[in-house]
Amino acid sequence: MSVPTLSDLAPVRTERPSAPVPSHWRHAKGRSWRRVLRRQLLPVALVLPALGLLALMIFYPLGRLVATSFQNLGPFQLISHKVVWDGLANYRSLFTSSDLGTSVLQTFLFVLACVGLTMTIGTGVALLLGRIGKLLRTVVTICMLFVWAMPTSAASIVWTWLFQTEYGVVNYVLTSLGGNFANHNWFNSTLPAYSIIVANIVWGAIPFVALMMYSAFSLVPRELFEAAAVDGASPATTFLRVTLPMVRPIFVLLTVLSIIWDANVFNQVWYLTQGNAQLLNVIPLGVWQYIEAFSSNEYGLGAAVAVLMILLLVAVTGYYIRIMVRTGQLRTELRA
Amino acid sequence: MTAPVTMAGVRSARYRGMTWVWRAVAIAFGMVIVFPVYWMVQSSFEPNGDITSLKPNFFPVHFTLHDFVDAVNHTAGVGQAYFWDDARNSLVVVTIATLVTLLFGFLAAAAISRFRLMGTTAFLVLILVVQMVPGTALIIPVFLLLNNLHLTDNYLGLILAYSASTLPFTIWALKGFVGAVPYELEEAAMVDGASRFGAFRRILLPLLLPGIISAGIFAFITAWNDFLVADVVMQENYHQTLPVWLFSFTTNTGTDYGGLMAGCTIMSLPVVIFFLLIQRRIVSGLTAGAVKG
C-alpha cells in the first residue's frame, strides 16, 4: 500500500513537454480561416459533449438561480409555470430577517472551526507520518483510507450512534472514565450539537489533508535540509524557514478547497440533526436555503440565500485564488 | 526516508529519543480515527439485546447476521421494503453517471492537451470557477430545470446531475494525466500508420488507464454519496438511492440501531474495499520508462 501522491489528485506539472502540439499546427495562424476552422473541428467536437453538459446542468442553473432569487416562486407558480417577478422582495425579507446576521456569523465560525482543525490536525498527522517507520505508516494510512472512502451519509449516521443518549459508546466511555455522562443528550443544545457536527466533518476531512500534506512534505528536495544542516540551522529553524515555505502553495490550495467544501456541507448537518436542523437554533446558510426552498416551498427566498452564500464564498476565497494564480500555482495548469 | 536526514531536518539525538513517542501517538491516532468505522461494523454483527445494553461489548460476543436481514427487510414505516429497489437505483445511476463523466472528461482532456484549441485557457478558467460553485447552492435551479424537463422521478435526471457535478474535477484530473503521457508515443503510432483516433485508442487510452480509474473512483464515490439531489429529484420511495434509504431509518421512532448500522455497512463497505483495492494501482506509474530521453 503506498500513499497517494500529489499527482493523483491535483496533477501539478512544473514544465510542459516540449512538443505536445504537432509542429505544423503552429503555422496555422497565417492560413485561411476555413483551414483553421477545419483544423479546429475535431478538438471542438471532442470538447463539445463536456461543454454541453456543463452548460445544461451548471451554467444555466447558475443563471436561473440568480433569476429565481428575484422571483416569487412558490408551489402555485411552480405548477402553473408562471413567472412572477418580485424585484428585491426576497432580498428585502432576507436582510430584514433577524436570523440572517446570526446565521452568517455562525456559518463563518463553523467554517473557521472546521477548516482550522482540519488543517492543523491534518498537517500534524502528515508530519507524524514522516517520523514513524514504514510498517506503522502503512497501517495508519490504511486506517485513514477507510475513513476517507466512507460515504458521508453513513458516517454521519454512525456518529449519531456513537453519541446516542442511552446506549452510545461515547457516553459509556466518558462515564467509565469518571464523568457523569449516563443518558447525556448531546443534541438538545446548540453548542454540543455543533461541536459534534464539526468533529464529524474534521474526522472525515483529515485523511485527505494529511495524505496530501505528507506528499507535499516528502517532495521537498533533501538538498535543502542538508544545506540548512551545514549552515547549522536547528530543526525548528529548518522547519520554519525551509519546510513551511516549500509546502505553502499546497497548504493554501487545501485551505481554499476546505473552505469551499465546509461552507457547503449538507449531509453531515442533515443526518446528525436527523433532518430537523432547526434543532441547531440557527442554521448554516447551506442548509437554510434548502429548508426555505423544499420545506417552506419558498424557492425564491431559498435562491436568494444561495446567491448570498456564493457571494460570501467568492469574497472569502477570491483573494487566495488570486494569490494562487499570481504565484503561478494555477498558471502552470492554465498554460495549455 | 533514510537517515541521517529526515524530511523535517537533521535527525538529532533528541529526535531519536522521541521515536517511541511518535509511534505511540501514531498508534493512538490510528485507533481513534478508525474507531467509528470499526464500531459501525461491530454493531452490525451484534444481536439487538447486546446493542441496547448499558454496557457495550467492544467485540461482537454473540455474532449474528440478523441485523443485515433486518436492514434489507426494513420497511421505513410504509409497509414495504425498498432496499433492493434503492440499491439497484444507486448502482445503475452512479455507474452510468461515472461512465458518462469519464467519457466526456477524457474527450475534453484529450482535446485540451493534444490540440492547440482556441479558448482553451478560458475553458479551463471556467472549469475552475465551476468547481467553486457549491453543489448545494445549485439544488434549487437544478430541481426547477429537471421539473420543467419532466425528468424528476427519472434515472436520466439523476444521471445528468451526477455526471455534470463530477465532470469539472474529472476533466481537471484527466488533463493532468494526459499531459504526463509523452506525445511522441502517439506520433510514433501515427508515423506507423495509425489514425489519430487509433493512436488515441491504442496508445493514449491504455497508458491512461490508472488515471482514468482513479478519476472514476472519485466520481463514483462523490455520486454514491449524494443525498440532496436524489432526495429532491426522486419522489417515489422505490426511485430513491441508498443514502435516502438510509435516512428513512432514522426518522422512525425507536431506531433499530443494529439494522441501521448493518445498512451503513452495506452502503459503505463495497466503496471502501473498492477504494482500497484500486488505491494500489493508481500510483503504479505505468508510463515510467515508456520513453527514454
Descriptive labels:
heterodimer, A: 336 residues, mainly alpha, MetI-like fold, disordered N terminus, B: 293 residues, 2 domains, two-stranded antiparallel sheet, 12 helices, disordered C terminus
State the gist of this model.
The complex is a heterodimer of chains A (336) and B (293). Chain A has 336 residues and is mainly α.
Task: Give the domain tally of chain B.
Answer: 2
The level 1 CATH classification of chain A is Mainly Alpha
Which fold does the CATH topology of the largest domain in chain B refer to? MetI-like fold
| Helix fraction bin of chain A | over 70%
Helix content of chain B: 55-70%
Overall 3D form of chain A: globular
Low-confidence stretches of chain A are 1-19, 330-336
Q: What is the third-level CATH name, the topology of chain A?
A: MetI-like fold
Describe the main β-sheet of chain A briefly.
Answer: none
- How would you classify the helix and strand content of chain A by structural class? mainly alpha
Classified by CATH, the class of the largest domain in chain B is: Mainly Alpha
Q: Whole-number average pLDDT of chain A? A: 80
Topology:
The complex is a heterodimer of chains A (336) and B (293).
Chain A: H1 6-9, H2 33-68, H3 75-80, H4 89-96, H5 99-129, H6 134-149, H7 152-162, H8 169-176, H9 190-218, H10 222-230, H11 235-263, H12 267-272, H13 285-295, H14 299-326, H15 331-334
Chain B: E1 5-6, E2 9-10, H1 13-43, H2 48-51, H3 66-73, H4 83-114, H5 120-132, H6 139-148, H7 155-180, H8 183-191, H9 196-225, H10 228-233, H11 242-250, H12 257-282
Antiparallel strand pairs in B: 1-2
Helix pairs in contact in B: 3-12, 4-7, 4-9, 5-7, 7-9, 8-9, 9-12, 11-12
